[in-house]
Write a structure and sequence with these properties.
The protein is built from nine helices and eleven strands. The protein is of the alpha+beta class.
């Protein structure tokens, strides 16, 4: 095997290894992006359910996953993740400063990012506009304010004359000091306006630069993918050429072996003829002997040539074995990668299926049972006799027709608690007034509670239990079965209950 052939074979092996490594890295990145997307979806679901701490934890897991790969830290998906964190901090955790900090991070990755309509509350919009100012973008509120500035400037302050009044009354003569003061104010106003224009141009240039940088990053990523595809194609071409060259060498070796065998057969035949002629032509013995010696030499050369061909054949077979081993290793690596991908997809499918089942079960519990057709008490509540600790508790109550326009409130506390927590019951699709006690408040062995219906003046119109004699809900450790039943309380009097 020549030095050049060895170098080509070595380079081919390196290219195969690099290609497999890059394919593995690309697969890892794709799996991480899928994980980040799933965490964002779960976080938004938790946020919609009011579990802000869970939503924050899932988004921080997405940030931690992206931090393992420097290329993913500036991915557009991370801008959306930081935006969701800002919404959770501002609207959920009421941490305005923390939310603005995450908004700034999102804007630095994608300056053109916007809050989705479903999450864009008034508080979120205000914090997001502040973040735009810190990130170098022009907030929408500032633009609206500047547009309304001329109208505000046209309104005269209290105590000053309007244009109509100026026509009706003579204009007082300005002193030199007043003129200087007015000129100075005009100069200052012009300077401030100039500074505002300069700042606006700088903000616009920065936005343009950030957009160009984002486009350049996208172009760079696309070029890297195209380069990887080209390298893979080139590697496959080199492997095909190497295999073709190997097949050609095998063909040439077989032809040489065939020629050597033919020459050997011919020499053997000539030698037999020489021996037969020796008895008949003794006079030509020396000549025949010389021919014999010459033929034996040729035979030795042929044998040496055959040995050399056999050696070359062994080397070629060795190279072929190495090539087949490399191809087998590459094929096994691809099969392993495909198997891991299928396993990951199966796990993801199972996870989504479990999430869908949990969501359906939770929605069913949150919706409550069917509304009863008739009930005698002023307030009818569907609350379990027993519940599990550390699990969200859904409360469903309904008041009689003459009380349905009143406000219904649910008061609760753990056993031994000093004060009651309150929840306002909101109308549901089935006709209940419903609310949820967070899992972290469902602790201890029992939960004390009562329900009140109040009119618009705040007076108690009806009650289910009282602060000093509340209803009792038994709590069992997680895993125990809770028996659900309707709590019916008939209120004899409609006077206020002391808190």
């Amino acid at each position: 095997m020549t030095v050049r052939a060895k170098i080509v074979a070595s380079i081919g092996g390196v290219l195969i290894w690099l290609g497999a490594a890059r394919l593995s890295a690309a697969a890892d990145q794709e799996a991480t992006l899928q994980q980040i997307t799933a965490l964002n979806k779960a976080a938004i679901a938790a946020y919609s359910a009011g579990d802000f701490d869970k939503s924050k934890d899932q988004l921080l897991q997405a940030v931690a996953a992206a931090n393992k790969d420097p290329e993913l830290q500036t991915h557009p998906l991370m801008a959306r993740t930081y935006l969701h964190l800002g919404v959770v901090y501002v609207d959920g955790l009421e941490d305005n400063a923390g939310g603005i900090a995450y908004f700034v991070k999102a804007l630095k990755i994608r300056p053109d990012i916007e809050v989705t309509q479903a999450l864009a509350t008034k508080t979120v919009k205000s914090a997001f506009d502040q973040a735009k100012g810190q990130a170098g973008a022009t907030p929408a509120v500032a633009t609206a304010a500047s547009a309304s500035a001329p109208k505000e400037a046209a309104v005269a302050p209290p105590g000053t004359a309007t244009p109509t009044q100026v026509q009706e009354k003579p204009t007082p003569k300005m002193t030199v000091a007043d003129k200087k003061k007015a000129a100075a104010e005009e100069k200052q106003a012009a300077a401030e306006e100039k500074n505002k224009d300069r700042q606006a141009r700088a903000d616009k240039e920065k936005l343009t630069k950030d957009a160009a940088q984002a486009q350049a990053n996208e172009t760079k990523e696309r070029a890297a993918k195209e380069k990887l595809l080209a390298e893979k194609t080139d590697k496959e071409k080199q492997l095909a050429e190497s295999k073709a060259a190997h097949d050609q060498l095998q063909k040439e070796a077989k032809e040489k072996e065939k020629q050597a065998q033919t020459e050997k057969d011919r020499l053997s035949k000539d030698l037999v003829q020489a021996k037969d002629s020796e008895a008949k032509e003794r006079a030509a013995k020396e000549k025949l002997l010389a021919e014999k010696t010459d033929k034996e030499k040729q035979l030795a050369d042929a044998k040496a040539s055959i040995l050399q061909l056999q050696k070359e054949k062994a080397e070629k077979e060795k190279l072929l074995g190495e090539s087949l081993a490399r191809e087998k290793a590459e094929r096994e690596a691809k099969e392993k990668l495909e198997k891991e991908k299928q396993l990951a997809e199966a796990r993801e499918k199972d996870r989504k299926s479990n999430e869908d089942k949990e969501r359906v079960n939770r929605e069913k519990v949150a919706a409550g049972p069917d509304l009863p057709a008739h009930f005698a008490s002023p307030i009818y509540c569907a609350i379990p006799d027993e519940a599990q600790t550390g699990v969200d508790l859904f409360v469903h109550c309904v008041a009689q027709a003459n009380l349905r326009d009143k406000e219904i409130a649910f008061y609760y506390r753990p056993s031994g608690g000093s004060h009651y927590n309150s929840l306002a019951l909101e109308p549901s699709k089935k006709g209940w007034h419903a609310a949820m006690v967070p899992a972290e408040h469902v602790t201890g062995k029992v939960l004390q509670y009562y329900v009140e219906v109040r009119d618009r003046q705040g007076a108690v119109a009806a009650a289910n239990g009282k602060p000093n004699s509340p209803n009792i809900l038994s709590l069992k450790p997680s895993g125990a079965t809770a028996n659900r039943s309707a709590v019916k309380v008939k209120v004899s009097t409609l006077r206020p209950v002391p808190r």
